[in-house]
Amino acid sequence: MRIAIRIDSKAAGAQLRRWGGEYREKVKKAVSQAIRGEAAELREDVRSHVGSRLAVVRKSFLKGFTARVLDKDPTRLPALYVGSRIPWSGIHEKGGAIGGRMLIPIHGRVGRKRFKAQVAQLMRGGNAYFVKNAKGNIVLMAENIKEHDRPLSGFKRRYRKAEGVKRLKRGASIPIAVLVPKLVLKKRLDVERLVASRIPRLSAAIERQIRQVD
């Protein structure tokens, strides 16, 4: 995900070109320093915002959201980059639909790789089958048998918690996942609004730093 907020900097760029020389470099460093000072706090604000809107299981997901200074190009003014290295996180900012038939775990979240391995193990053992429930949904089921206690442990625990069941009988059927033709995700994040709200503060910080240049 990348957040882009445009600010008219033609006047600033023209002024910077007129200054030239050593003073120009000082101004660029001042701007970079001001942005860097705001970036650290903005990064934490963005991570806090995402954590409050999404059910985050791994802290590494939040660490994927960052705010940093881009100031390596000598021909351009320093800039603030806000985004995430997780490519699919952007769909939570805008909302949208993911096409293609997908298996979605029931009763809680499971990591994609782990879920795939568990389903594959159940399939290989012949202990996974599809049924159509009363609502017309295609549901993947598995039987509570001893041979598959390990791959079923998490599914059984979450199922008991959701249904208020203390113990499952051997041979009982457990819903694992639902097969959907597409997944529609609503907008849940508003990182762009958060960043935009910080622009006046960032502008003021840049102005203060430039005034200190002599």
Number of strands: 7
**How many helical elements?**
8
The end-to-end distance, rounded to whole angstroms, is 39 Å
Give the class from helix and strand content and strand pairing: alpha+beta
Short overview:
The protein has 214 residues and is α+β, with helices and mostly antiparallel strands. The chain has 8 helices and 7 strands. The chain folds into 2 domains: 119 residues; 90 residues, no CATH class.
Keywords:
four-stranded antiparallel beta sheet; alpha+beta; single chain; 214 residues
Descriptive report:
The protein folds into 2 domains: 2-94 and 186-211; 96-185, no CATH class. Helices cover 47% and strands 22% of the residues. It has 8 helices and 7 strands. It has helices at residues 10-19, 21-53, 59-63, 91-94, 112-124, 149-163, 191-197, 199-211, and strands spanning 2-3, 65-70, 79-84, 96-105, 129-132, 138-143, 173-185. The strands form 2 sheets. Strands 4-7-6-5 form a 4-stranded antiparallel β-sheet, with helices on both faces. It has a 3-stranded antiparallel β-sheet with strand order 1-3-2. α2 (21-53) packs antiparallel against α8 (199-211). It starts with a strand and ends with a helix.
